[in-house]
Amino acid sequence: MMLFASALAYGTNFSVAPTRFVLRIDKVATNEVYVSNNTQKPLRIETYIESDAEFRSDYNLNSNIAIFPKVIGIKPGGKQVVRFRVKPGQNMEDGEYKSYIVFKEIPPEIKTMGEKKKSGDSTTNITIVTELGISIYGGIGEEVLKGGVENFKGVFRGKFLEINFDAVSHGNTSFKYKYIVEDGGGNILNEGKAGISPRNGKKHIRLGISELPKIKGNSIKIKLLDQYDNMLHEEKVKI
Predict the structure, then answer these.
(1) pLDDT tens, position by position, 133-146
(2) What own/partner pairs with CB < 8 Å and gap ≥ 24 does 51-55 have?
(3) Confidence class of residue 238 from pLDDT cuts 50, 70 and 90?
(4) Strand 147-157 versus strand 188-196 pairing type
(5) pLDDT > 90 in the chain, percent
(6) 57-109 residue pLDDT tens
(7) What percent of the chain is modeled with pLDDT above 70?
(8) More reliable by pLDDT, 62 or 115
(9) pTM value?
(10) In the predicted model, what is the mean pLDDT of the chain?
(11) What are the distances in angstroms from CA 55 to CA 80, 166, 236?
């Protein structure tokens, strides 16, 4: 199972940072990813490219990304740099493209967890392989950000805030939503990332927030912004 995170992808045996790149690919540039070994033994990790289903086969960067090295070895507690370049292809349409760079442990250097269980004369080992993916967004030509938020609903239940909305994009670039939760006096109670829309289309996003301090008053305000801090939606929610 592949794992994703917003700032640091942390697996059983290793971690990767950063986990998202938003690039202009009109010009070729070298980017760096840091892979850390969280164990007390050497690790070998391979890399490969994977497309995002929401961007379809027409708008991925699978053939545009070059990774080096493709296989790395990391000492116990050590760190290794992996570099990659994104080259624009011929006849690429304007807009945003996306793929994942996936980091995967190579057997037999993986960590084995669990117990050996005898079944007749056989023995079974339970093995967990860490596999982490980071997002690579590449923009070329004119990127059109058009759309926003539909069917917003915020519900406060005790100390838990649930936010639901439809992420809608009518352009050629995805929305990368942010949220801000404020009390009645405008003080920020919580903020963070709130999901990503398709390149073009609609999908439902559900967000749960439990880390809210004690709230004064009988309502809170929820704000949704895009990646450029433009306000997309603002609504009061009773508590």
Answers:
(1) 999 999 999 999 99
(2) 51/98, 51/99, 51/100, 52/98, 52/99, 52/100, 52/135, 54/98, 54/198, 54/199, 54/201, 54/203, 55/96, 55/97, 55/98, 55/99, 55/198, 55/199
(3) confident
(4) unpaired
(5) 67
(6) 889 999 999 999 999 999 999 999 999 999 988 889 999 999 999 999 997 64
(7) 87
(8) 62
(9) 0.81
(10) 87
(11) 30, 17, 33
Residue 188 in tokens: 């920020």
Q: Where are the beta strands (DSSP E) in the chain?
A: 9-10, 14-17, 20-24, 30-37, 43-51, 65-68, 71-74, 79-86, 95-105, 117-119, 122-124, 131-140, 147-157, 160-169, 176-182, 188-196, 201-209, 219-225, 231-238
Q: What is the DSSP letter of 112?
A: B
Separation in Å, CA 3 to CA 42, 61, 155: 21, 20, 28
How many Cα atoms within 13 Å fall on the side-chain side of residue 12?
Answer: 15
Q: 224 pairs with which residues across the strands? A: 179, 233
The set of residues, in sequence order, having a beta carbon less than 8 Å from that of 163 and lying 6+ positions away, is 152, 153, 154, 179, 194, 205, 206, 207, 208, 209, 222
134: amino acid identity, one letter: I
| 134 C-beta neighbours (distance < 10 Å), count | 22
In angstroms, what CA-CA distances link 68 with 37, 71, 109, 154, 198? 18, 8, 21, 45, 29
